[in-house]
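Entry type: protein chain
Record version: 2
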Amino acid sequence: MLTTARAGSRSVYTHQEMRRLVAPESVAIVGASSTPGSFGERTISNLAKFTGRLYGVNPKYTETAGIPCFPSISDLPETPDCVIIAVAAKFVEEQVREAAACGVGGVIVYASGFAEVGTEEGKAAQARLTQIARETGIKIVGPNCVGLINLTNGAGLNFMPGYGKMDHIIGPVSIVSQSGGLGYGLVQGMERGMGFGHYLAAGNSCDVDVCDYISFLADEPSAKVIVCLFEGVIDGKRLIQAAQRAYDNGKPLIAYKMGSGEIGRKTAMSHTGTLVGSGDAYNAAFEKTGAIAIDRLEALLEVASFFARSGKPRNGTGVGIMATSGGAAVIAADKAEQFGVPLPQLAQETADKLTQLVPGFGSVANPADLTAEVLKTKETFVACFDAFAADQSFDALVVPLGFASPESSGARTPLMSEMAKRTGLPIVGIWMSEWLEGPGSKVLDGDERATLFRSSDRCFETINLWLKWHGERDERLKRKGEARRSPKDAAAKATAILDGLEPGARSVDEIKGKEILAAYGIPTPREIIAPDAVAAGKAAAEIGFPVVIKIVSPDILHKTEVGGVKLNLASEEEVKAAAEEMLKNVAKHKPAARIEGVVVQEMAPKGVELVVGAQVDPQFGPLVVVGLGGVLVELLRDTVSRLAPLTAPDVAEMLAGLKSSALLTGYRGSTPVNMEALVDLIVRFSEFVDDMGDRITEVDVNPVIALADRAICVDALIGVGGGEGH
């Protein structure tokens, strides 16, 4: 699906701005027809349950397929909220202009043959549609779009085959999709009992896109959970705006981002640039807004259904597992551990009740092996449920269903549904049979409270996400108001330094780079610039030994590659000799480079080395990357990325998320680093890259030395040239 850029960015549309398009009270179909299989005929069929007023527009008929028909949009007895344009591409623009002139709320364009075909003519035709939307305010969906569904008012605004014959089940999950076919495949979950509120396809997104749909659903009362299936967006800031609106309103956004590979990674100057790929920016956007990233299509509806049906955990302590098979109990326990889902011990009262119900060869624990004996009577199975449900240790109950038959799964799932409704506790079934739609499965697929998973992995992964999402939300919302830490004049000082660079400069030299960092209150070593070897020796004596010397050149980005760094120099004579050798060797290896001398720098003590960097993503802006390893960072690839700016809790989470985070907190007797100082440094760094996102391309502060009493930036590379797309 091809999404085209707009002339200038805009905020996402609000619920009110989208209402007439997505929740119309009147609809007109341009190209209405009774010809079997035509888009016009299919659309009329799919609107059979529409509760509003329906009109056809076709000069050939006065009535077609049972609805009144008129020659043009202008001839309709009222101005419709929504117009579906089911005619060929060459007629689309004329119809859109007429709809806009009549004050129509929105149009849906089915036709292909626009920007997605890649021709200049197709791109120009689509650009004209975008311009009509901007000039008139009409909302345009498509072109190259299958249409929309609003189940709450029966508006099947689409041409998808078979939709009119499908059971139309209303539920709390709404789906947004760029891909019409894949999105409609999710809607077919209704065939196995699942319910939905909306299906909103975007097509080429000449105007309305997935961000606008998310924004609409964020304020739509019938939507409790939003699923978004998409390939990408042009303006990442709008995605963040929409996703944040959903999060603020307490609506989980379940996002499946297709095309997350790194084939298109651009060449970069720094370590950071080689560590950041296109998928990292999207993942960082999801993290920033509390969206739940899912990387498997088959998991989307299970995750969304569970979130929609389960509400908020009652205490956030974990789940209970009620198995009637020892093997199923073991598998469930393994998966709970794998995905970090706590399994609290049974309360003594719960254990006492179960002991009276479970045979001696069973297991009264969590997980419990109740054995097949408890299935002999409904009363025994329900009594076990009651015992678990009354235990306040559990936020949900998981019931593995080992095989399918009318006597086992067919008998148990109605009881699970009944218990979920009666207790208010989420009841989760794990369907372990390969008879995927065997007896009883449809009961849980379509239930309002209980949920069915067809994978133990997906079950416990989802429960982990659920506990985490609800557990963190209140705290995350508080962070939005956290005050900046950088000095008020930091941005002005950084701007002045960048303004002073030579025209066409691609980078800031280390000296100026550290001046910028210092303006933000970021600690750097004491240093003196020396034009020659003699001055370097005197500077070293003034600073105190040991020292480091580095070549100063705006044309040399990686100093170590040309012998431009000498460490641990202990006397004035050593400094002079090292500086003479360095200046000679660098001039030999890089004869065209401008050499401004050397910088003499205090030798930072040994500590834990990190790299702190940033890459300016063309869609989302500055992406902060933190990793352990210093010069080994690319080898270890132990990094975490987040969008700037960051708060102290954000940074603490990033550091804790590093695989080698134990090095920071004291590993095998080593001294812990000053985490407060390290967090403060990274927060200030994030504020710098956020402020300068339109002036810089990437930043590499490597290494950052974390010590027991402080954290200090030893080296800095700042690429400039403007953040494309910002």
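Comment: The radius of gyration is 31 Å.
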